[in-house]
Amino acid sequence: MTRGMLCAAIASLAIPAMAQAQVMFDTQKVTCSYYLAMQPNDARLFSAFMSGWSHQKGGDMKVDLNDYDRKIVQLRGWCATNPNELILNRFQAM
Question: What is the pTM assigned to this prediction?
Answer without folding.
Answer: 0.69
